[in-house]
Amino acid sequence: MQKYRLTFKTGEITRAAKEFLKITQGNKHFAFYGKMGVGKTTIIKTLCNLLGTIDLVSSPTFAIINEYCTHQGTTIFHFDFYRIKSSSELMDLGFYEYCSSETYGFIEWPEKAEEIIPDDFIHVLLEEDLDGTRILSFSL
């Protein structure tokens, strides 16, 4: 398993997202870990835009899931587990049906229901350095 670490300033997020998609090519499911306010939604928004979404990408904190359509006619799913109280809430939403699809999927706050996340999800850690640089770490 190879470890990757991408660093970027706020203004370089598109470059970092392009590099992330290039490195992770062939993988479509990602679980994003990181503290509140580190930029998980922002990087996912950028990734979705690069993948061709025609919908406005926003945090699904209250809805738990957002689905976005792309120019190619595919769907991207975006979960935010922050407000869930138990993994059974996700099961009621058909979580595994989303995960079994061939579409891209992103999860924020996966630690809230880690026990049900399928093994094919790439665990991505987003951190902020003291100077504001963001660090995106993951293994493939």
* Separation of the first and last Cα atoms: 5 Å
Q: List SSEs in N-to-C order.
A: EHEHEEHHEEE
Q: Tell me the count of domains.
A: 1
Largest sheet: 7 strands, mixed
Counted beta strands: 7
Specify the helix fraction band: 10-25%
3D structure, described in words:
The longest helix is centred in the first third of the chain and has 11 residues, at 13-23. The protein has a single domain, classed as Rossmann fold, CATH 3.40.50.300. It has helices at residues 13-23, 40-50, 87-92, 95-99; strands spanning 3-8, 29-33, 65-69, 75-80, 105-108, 122-128, 134-139. It contains four helices and seven strands, in the order E-H-E-H-E-E-H-H-E-E-E. Helix 1 (13-23) packs across helix 2 (40-50). Strands 1-7-6-2-5-4-3 form a seven-stranded mixed sheet, with helices on one face. The protein has 140 residues and is α/β, with parallel strands linked by helices.
What attributes characterize this protein structure?
single chain, seven-stranded mixed β-sheet, alpha/beta, Rossmann fold, about 30% strand, about 140 residues
Brief write-up:
This protein is of the alpha/beta class and 140 residues long.
Outline the secondary-structure elements.
Elements: E1 3-8, H1 13-23, E2 29-33, H2 40-50, E3 65-69, E4 75-80, H3 87-92, H4 95-99, E5 105-108, E6 122-128, E7 134-139
